[in-house]
Structure formats: structure tokens, C-alpha cells
Amino acid sequence: MSHLSKSAVVSACSLALALAACGGGTSALAPAPETYDLQAAYTHLIAAGLTSNVALSGSVPINGVTVAFTGTGTLVLSPGVTGTFNGATELGQTTTISGTIMASGQSSQYSSSVTDYFDPKTYAFQGELSANEYDVVQTPFSYPTSITGGSGGVLGTVSRYTDSTMSMPIGTAQLSYTTTAAATAGGPASVQLIDKLYDNLNNLTETDTTTYSISSSNVLAFLSATVSSTSGSLTVTPK
Question: Please, where are the H alpha helices in 77-229?
């Protein structure tokens, strides 16, 4: 995630060579790319939480037919609270999406909830709990402290189970991130956190992507979330 310094190139190039081979005349070096601290930003998000009114859209299979839906609701990331996960005291942050959706002229309530767990001292990611799944990271990881536009990489791998007994594995998940540079100097960049779910045969069954903007002061703002799986899709955007 580091970028190549231009200082070695500059120091190796004499004035004569610069005039002859580097285009002649005088030129200014391009400014260093803006860097952001994703770990600091995510630590703040865990501590402060987030609430956003959202629009919902996507598709769901009904009686063998894929049906589109739309709706509105609320996205809430609770401030982290102390709890227990995988036998240890951790900091848990619950993400809830709730609202009303309309499909084929019928209105129904929608709700989903997951809790992510972090080390209370280092904020390293430990795993996730949902209604039908218990995921434990194979090696705890922290988010990178220095990112630039165009950077990205794998953060870690999670082992997926049906429940906290961890007696029935259902596959793995790979967590990664990508970034897009700010549109203007000093402006916010965007960060995509990507969660790819695989079954026990290593078949990709679902991709979850959450996109935030990250400011120069390392504060995250919600931009969108998408879920795409074999059973349907969901897109969540701020209203």
C-alpha cells in the first residue's frame, strides 16, 4: 500500500540530464497523493455509530419468479458496546436495516441485523453474528492506517458456521477493500468494503459491498450498500 517515492529519480538526474532527457525547462513534481487513515476512521465509526434514512431497492424470488421491489427505511449502526464473542470480551456494533418495501403491489416489512465484534483495545476485527450465521476471523485484522486513491487489498478471511458451537462449517468469507481518489484536492475519497461469501465447495454465493466517503479528517460517511446473492439482491442508499 506504499507508493514509489520520486526522490530517488530526482536525486539521480543531473540538471544537464534533466534538460536533455526529461523534457527540458523547469517542471514541478506532482504533489504527493492524499492519504487517509482508514483504521482511525473506522474506530470513530464504531465509537460514534451512524444513522441514515435510506431508500431500498432490489429483487426477490416469489414462486419461482424474480420480482423487483422498492421501499424506504432506516440504517442504524449502533455505537459499540461491550459484549462476549467466541469466549472473549469484545466490542460489538450492531447494524440494522428496517423499513417497508413494495413488491407486486404488496407492502411488507423488512428487517435485517448483524453484529460485528472488535477487540476493545486495538479495534481489530474478530467476527460477526447474525440470525443464521456465526463467523470467526481466521486471523484478527485492523484496517490500514494509510490509504490513497486507487489502493486496495485483502483484509482477512472469515470461517463461517451455523452457530456459536462452530460444529457445522458452511464456508468462508474474504474481506477486502478498494479506494477511489478524491475528485478535488483535499476532498473526500471513497472506500468500498467488500465481503465475498463462499460455500464449502468454494463457490461464490454472495457479495456484500458497503461504500463510504472518507474525509481528510478521517471521518466516514455512508454512501451505499449492496447485497447480491443467489436468492436476490438489495441496494441501500441515503435519502
Answer: none
